[in-house]
Amino acid sequence: MTVLPLLRRQFRSPGFALTALVLVAAAVLVNASAFNALHALRWKALPYADGDALVDLRANLRSFGFDVGLTEHLRGELAADRTHFTSVLGFASARATDEDGRPWRLARVTPAFSRTLGVPAALGRSLAEEDARPGADAVLVLGDAVWRSRFGADPDVVGRRIRFGDRAYTVVGVMPRGFVFPDATTEAWRPYVMSEAERRQSDQGNVGDLDVVARLAPGVSPAQAGAALAALLARDASVAGLRTNAGLVGEVRAWRDRYARSHWRALALFQLAALILLAVVAANLVNLQLDRLLARRRELDVRRAIGASERAIAREIVADLAPPVLAGLALGLALTPFATGLLERRGLLPDGLPQGAGFGPAAVAMGLAVAALALASGALAALVARPRSRLSAREGAAGLGRLRPLLLVAQVMLTTALLGCGVLLLRSAANLVETDRGFDARGVLVTLVDPIGIATGSRSFDPATDTDKYAPVVEAVRQDVAGLPGVDRVAVATAPPFSRWETVSSYHVPGRDENIQARGRGVGPGYFAALGIGLVAGREFTAADAGEAGPVIVDEVYRDRYLQGADPLAAYVDVATDAAGHLRRARIVGVARTVKHESLDEAERLPTIYQYHDAPLPMFWLVTHTSGDVAALAETVRRRVLARVPGADVGVSKPLADLVEATLTARRALLEAIGGFAAGTLLLAALGLAAVLGFAVRRRTAELGVRMALGATPAGVRNLVLRQGGLLAAGGIALGLAVGVALARLLADRLFGVGFADAASWAATVAVVAAVALLACWWPAHRAAATDPVAALRAE
Amino acid sequence: MIRLDNLERSYPLAGGGRSWVLRNVTLDVAEGEFVSIMGPSGAGKSSLLNVLGLMDHDWQGAYALDGVAVGTLNARQRQALQREKIGFIFQHYHLIDDLKVWENLDLPLQYRDVPAKERAARVGDLLDRFNIVGKKDLYPAQLSGGQQQLVAVARAVITRPRLLLADEPTGALHSSQARMIMDLLHELNREGITIVQVTHNEDYAKEARRIVRLFDGWIEKAPA
Fold first, then answer.
1. A92: CB partners within 8 A, 6+ apart
2. What is the pLDDT of residue A483?
3. Which of A323, A439, A775, B108 could hold A531 in an S-S bridge, CB 3.0 to 4.6 Å?
4. Residues of chain B positioned with their CB less than 8 A from the CB of A14
5. Which of 252-311 (A) contact B at CB < 8 A?
6. Chain B contact probe: residue of A315, A391, A394, A796 with most B CBs at under 10 A
7. Dihedral through CA A194, CA A197, CA A203, CA A209, nearest 10?
């Protein structure tokens, strides 16, 4: 068939062309963006030489339920192990502000930066081993993006000096375009040279200060590297305490998994839902085609009569579908970059993925596969609609009546499965939002204040001299903020909930042989009131609790675990007074409600012990409660802090509700995606059901006319059609339940407070699908009931 | 050209048994003949035309078309034979609505993989011969019934068939248009094309060299 008649046909039936275009565009869009993201996460080349030989080495604190980085001391030990590692690189993120007040995101990297990652500088040189010598470390390597945005891609940038705080750094090189490490937010790299305090922390086995990436020696597997790390952690004296108290074990994973692990499952589920949508779209396309072929039945017979082979007919049917499919493919692919951006913004893709997740061959390949499937649906329709043989019109509908009900049952089945999963996710989200978090985030602003400027690298903290110097500053800042209009309460803390700051320490419960591990929190007066954390016994801290013999407040987990049956207010706990582990006995003066610290679905693994601390240093959090607009207060507080301490850095100043919300982002994105796809498939299945029943009614017009001529009532005819549709829908729903429950097993780790086979959720799903199916059946049934027997019989 | 020997066609009935539409049909049509098939509704006229046109192969008996035993052919061979020998004309013209007049004529040649240049030449010749050059860029809906049937006849003969099967070719036309089509069929017959037409019109039937009458699937009169 030539092109012009093909295009003319599209314009003659714009409804079909437009419907096919929209269906294909939607299927291409969701599948191409899902596969593009999956491909980027799992298979796209990392921007390093042989990136698959890089591994991430971490310390897993099993007793605490999380994993962290290592220490410089451990990195040095690993670097000496040439059997397993070619080179080992440590890094820590840092922020800085230059002399023009522009914020920078830096990474401090240990020697072997170039050797481990295998990427030379594009301009100048990369960081060398000698740059890490104390005194020689004031050099900087720029990323391509910052070189372009802040230096106008100046080829003479090497040698320029950039001042961060009281130290000037010399630019020695620019990394090539596309180089990202450890993630896309990092703009430049400088040598990691430990301060004395950092060295002490490292030597004491304070894991988490340094993230470590290593290049495996040739022939070494990640498992072998894992065994090497395990052996090191088992023998190294610096982490002996963590081995005993925190269940320390090593964990080695491919560097790619650092980003992929937490997102892989959600994206895979997203892709699965997209494929289900694709299947339903394909089924609808077949249905649409069959309707169209029915309308063209006589024309196709004529074509056969004048010499068209079945292959030529099939070719024409597929060619007929090609323009809307190709237009849908183009539209879907054109929108894919926006959808990919949306996946990133909604948290289904990690921020700053090193290898990037931009539009690429994977999206095109998936788009082409979807388009091919759409065209194949035309071929399937042609195959099914192939007549046996005749010139007579009487058999024209032969062959069209078998596949469609099967397609419909499949559509209802997939819709039920997807919708059921959506309902489960929705209930989980509702359960999470309603779960008792132990605090009230409404009206609460949390602000991280770094009065000395440590985070920006401009100053260092010396406890011996700086504690006394800055303690009054903390109180002054607190009072300044307390004086702001609309502020009810302000308290300081070392780590408020959802701040992503954590301290786990050893405590001794009198009467027990072994120490216990608990979350340690330093909080000032008014903390519990500001956060709305209820006290189930005792009292809050007051200023009178300051001093070396200060009391503690424990949470319900501690009370239930260690004080069963005893009066908590008559109990004591031994708390450490220094890094050497010396203990003092502290009286418990209150029992606070248990709060969620990191996520709403976290298990109550560790108890929490609050100690009085009215001036946490070198950094502290302000917890501010306001009766006014909390978001507007954020900037006001920031300005007030800077007005009091001009050299301070305000790292975070956000409503606590936003921090809680951020932990739900990925979960919500999955809910939105699966819920959206479920709604789409429900609509398509409803349209399919209406189309199939409408088709059946048209085929049975004469029969219905005869029935009515013989005395059938309109209600009787309507029920006849409703029964026909109801049977198909019921079959689909029953199969959908079986498939859906199996599918929901994959979601089990995303569910909260609801099981994957939750009867109420699945009953609700069945009710919704059945109600929509009934609505979809109603119109054809109504038309059947309105059949005019005389007209029907005359037409026959 | 056509030799049918005891040909029978039936359809199975749902409750068992069969419904017979053609019974013991024996018929010879010589090359260059013009034959009319007549009979009341349900007599089996269209069924017979389907068999003759190789559109239906589910029959018993023997059928030879231009010396080829049709019963021994597979589907592909039957279609090749049909493409080579047979042209169809329908009561309701059945032109393709989406295609212009010249594209309708071009279509059978496309299906036979005739090269584009030759197709253009043959379409041009036929438009000229049927005096419809001025209509070539019109769509079927823009033509009268007679003009549409004229195009349909042109489409049927553009592949130069040796057998033309016409199912009520004048059934949807008023008398002057019907006359024109019958004259055209006579002209084609004079040029050597064998024509078998199904018709209800006694006058037009008589214009054929002979009439075959069907009743309940049986041939009433089959002159040798």
1. A107, A108, A192, A209, A210, A211
2. 93
3. A439
4. none
5. 298-299, 301-309
6. A391
7. -70
Distances (CA, A) of A679 to A282, A422, A686: 16, 9, 10
Among A8, A298, A390, beta carbon nearest to B55: A390
Which candidate, A37, A41, A39, A192, places its Cα nearest to that of A113? A192
Residues of B with a Cβ under 8 Å from any A Cβ are 46-47, 49-50, 53, 55-58, 79, 82-83, 87-88, 90, 94, 96-99, 103, 107-108, 110-112, 155-156, 159, 167
The partner residue sitting opposite A305, judged by closest CB among B57, B88, B97, is: B88
Buried b vs exposed e over A456-480: b needs ≥16 C-beta within 10 Å? Answer: bbbbebeeeebeeebeebbeebbeb
CA A397, distance to chain mean position in Å, is 50
User: Using CA atoms, how far apart are residues A739 and A616, in angstroms rounded to an integer?
Assistant: 55
What pLDDT score was predicted for residue A456?
65
In which residue are the tokens 């780590």 written?
A: A495
Q: What is the pLDDT of residue A459?
A: 66
pLDDT at position A790 is 66
Put simply, the answer to whether B94 touches A8 (Cβ < 8 Å) is no
Q: Which of B55, B94, B97 has the CB atom closest to A389's CB atom?
A: B55
Q: Which of A494, A440, A514 is nearest to A608 (CA)?
A: A494
Residue of A nearest to B76 (CA): A309
What is the pLDDT at residue A709? 66
**DSSP conformational letter for A175:** P
Å between B96 CA and nearest CA of chain A: 6
The reply to whether A219 touches chain B by the CB within 8 Å rule is no
Q: What is the mean pLDDT of residues A484-510?
A: 90
Q: CB–CB of A418/A699 below 8 Å? A: no
Q: Which of B79, B81, B96, B126 to mutate to test the interface with A (most CBs of A within 10 A)?
A: B96
Q: Strands A188-191, A248-254: parallel, antiparallel or unpaired by DSSP?
A: unpaired
User: Worst-scoring range by mean pLDDT, A299-308, A631-640, B16-25, B98-107?
Assistant: A299-308
Q: pLDDT: is A709 or B145 the higher one?
A: B145
Share of residues in chain B with pLDDT > 90 (%): 50
Q: How far is CA A666 from the centre of its chain?
A: 3
- Rounded Cα gap, residues A652 and A307, in angstroms: 76
- What pLDDT, on the 0 to 100 scale, is given for residue A392? 33
Reply yes or no on whether the pLDDT at B224 is more than 50.
no
B49, B56, B94 member nearest A298 (Cβ): B94
pLDDT of residue A789: 66
Contact at CB, A389 and B58, closer than 8 angstroms:
yes
| pTM of the predicted model as reported, rounded to 2 decimal places | 0.75
Average of per-residue pLDDT across A169-184: 92
User: Tens digit of pLDDT for each residue in A347-371?
Assistant: 888 877 888 888 889 999 999 999 9
How distant is the Cα of B184 from the closest Cα of chain A, in angstroms? 19
- A320-348 residue pLDDT tens: 889 999 999 999 999 999 999 888 888 88
pLDDT level of residue A791 (50, 70, 90 thresholds) = low
Chain A contact set for B141 (CB, 8 A): none
Q: Which residue has the tokens 């036979």?
A: B112
Over the stretch A547-557, which tens digit does the pLDDT of each residue have?
A: 777 899 999 99
Q: What's the rounded Cα separation, in Å, for the pair B182 and A22?
A: 50
B224/B213 Cα distance (integer angstroms): 13
